[in-house]
Amino acid sequence: MEAAGISAMKIQRDWGLNMAKKWALITGATVGIGDAFARLLAAEGYNLVINARSLDKLEERAAFLRKSFNVEVEVLAADLARDCEKVEAYIASHEIEVLINNAGFGLNQSFLASNIADEEQVLDVLVRAPMRLMHAVLPQMRKRNSGTVINVSSTAAFIAGGHYSAAKSYLTVMSESLHTQLAPTKVNVCSLNPGFTRTEFHQRAGMKMGAIPNFMWLDGDFLVKQAWADAVKGKAISIPGWQYKLLRLIIAAAPRRTVRKMGMSLRTKQR
């Protein structure tokens, strides 16, 4: 009877663990793609840790998510260019099932005209921070053989469009490399490479986007839904939208010299 009782208790305990909600951490979570991921993952039943620089905006979004989706939401205010270690420390002491590296930074100047401190900030936010957060979270994911990392890169990674393309190329290639390395496990790293998306990003960076035709713009909720579906399927790269799938094929087939000119021409028109 005692053995049976212990067995029953174990089944109940294991069932409770399986039913417990898992946690997802999202950087740059208060607007745009990050906010879309927060809403999607909350709808999927994940508890959330949302990161951004503004504590007021984080608290506002957290209240909305708790009320709308009945999930737990923790806020983690940190500027990833200066205080990435704060997020790393959180990961080290908590079990994170999903990491969305989404925090962005735009610099609307050419490399030859920019301030070196601004160039370093581009690398801090777009390269250093996601690298460090992946390095913090992947060992725990691999240990329990479960987890998903989505790195929000860009179709700019496929062209030569200055510092932004260079930074996003790192994120895409690193995602692909880790995807291959972790293939024998149930941990997936996926690079999300969206095209032009209707968010605040371009406005905040002061970029001129009027020349971009309307059919090239993507909806944030659409691309996040597609990216999550691709990540769940175990894909290494997610490119939402037929127009950007076609663009990648054209870039792959075009002479590299043409790709370089196209990339720099596009960036020049945005300034």
Q: Can you put this structure into words, describing what you see?
A:
The protein is α/β, with parallel strands linked by helices. The protein has a single domain (2-270), classed as Rossmann fold (3-Layer(aba) Sandwich), CATH 3.40.50.720. The chain has helices spanning 2-19, 32-43, 55-69, 84-92, 116-144, 163-181, 201-204, 220-232, 242-253, 256-270; strands at 23-27, 47-52, 73-77, 98-101, 147-152, 187-192, 237-238. It has a seven-stranded parallel sheet with strand order 3-2-1-4-5-6-7, sandwiched between helices. Helix 5 (116-144) links the parallel strand 4 and strand 5 (147-152). Helix 2 (32-43) packs across helix 8 (220-232). The longest helix has 29 residues, at 116-144. It is globular, with a radius of gyration of 20 Å.
**Rg on CA atoms, Å:** 20 Å
- For this structure, the CATH topology is Rossmann fold
Number of domains: 1
Runs with pLDDT <50, length 5+?
1-19
Characterize the biggest β-sheet: 7 strands, parallel
Q: What is the level-2 CATH architecture name?
A: 3-Layer(aba) Sandwich
Quaternary: single chain
